[in-house]
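User: Sequence recovery, please. Input:
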């Protein structure tokens, strides 16, 4: 499956459009990031403890009524699945929250919430730095280029890095949902092989399957890669200058 991955010509990057300044991009990104954090916090109120424990168990993090973490950030994967996915016929926490929320149409809060409801899980490859801020990455399964703005990833990931994440698209740029990890071919192969149903699906159908994110997260935890991953907001230094 992975040997056949290639690029199409169409993409979501607009190289001919005037590039905004780094200050403008980061200011917009930080503003939307704060809104997304609020939405996630509110969406968590629509989760039951049993739902989170169910996902923790599926990821191999909950054993004998105890959550076992090699890295405290591993639990964010269970929350990501609990908020953004649900079995067929069941509603997602992010949608239940959206139905209860009241934001002015066209507001940034409404814009961000809609982007979060349309979040996509992806395996992406870093291509190069964006001239303003962030990275140009390729969504490998969907074969599209994206402008990803994430300060932490911008300073830590060199070209050629492949990583898995869930992303939102509230602007010309996309931004991560706050969870992600580097992956390799062996890890992806393990994830796909744990989903026998994927053998009858196309690449896009596989990555759109809610169980694929779970399979990748489980493979990442089992591989030990998460012991070398840390999530943190970079210090607000000269980036905005």
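Assistant: Recovered sequence (241 residues):
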């Amino acid at each position: 499956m992975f040997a056949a991955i290639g690029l199409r010509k169409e993409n979501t990057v607009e190289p001919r459009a005037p590039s905004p300044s780094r200050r403008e991009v980061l200011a917009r990104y930080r503003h939307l990031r704060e809104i997304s954090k609020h939405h996630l916090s509110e969406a968590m109120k629509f989760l039951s403890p049993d739902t989170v424990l169910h996902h923790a168990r599926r990821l191999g993090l909950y054993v004998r009524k105890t959550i076992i973490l090699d890295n405290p950030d591993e639990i964010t994967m269970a929350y990501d699945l609990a908020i953004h996915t649900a079995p067929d016929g069941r509603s997602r926490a992010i949608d239940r929250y959206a139905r209860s929320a009241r934001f002015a149409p066209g507001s940034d809060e409404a814009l961000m919430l809609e982007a979060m409801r349309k979040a996509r899980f992806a395996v992406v490859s870093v291509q190069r730095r964006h001239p303003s801020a962030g990275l140009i990455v390729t969504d490998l399964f969907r074969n599209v280029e994206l402008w990803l703005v994430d300060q932490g990833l911008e300073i830590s990931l060199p070209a050629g890095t492949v990583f898995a994440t869930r992303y939102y698209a509230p602007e010309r740029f996309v931004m991560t949902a706050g969870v992600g990890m580097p992956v390799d071919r062996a890890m992806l192969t393990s994830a796909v092989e744990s989903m026998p149903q994927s053998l009858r699906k196309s690449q896009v159908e596989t990555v759109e399957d809610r169980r694929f994110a779970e399979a990748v997260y489980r493979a990442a935890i089992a591989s030990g890669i998460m012991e070398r991953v840390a999530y943190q907001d970079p210090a607000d230094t000269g980036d905005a200058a």
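Confidence is low (pLDDT under 50) at residues 1-10, 235-241.
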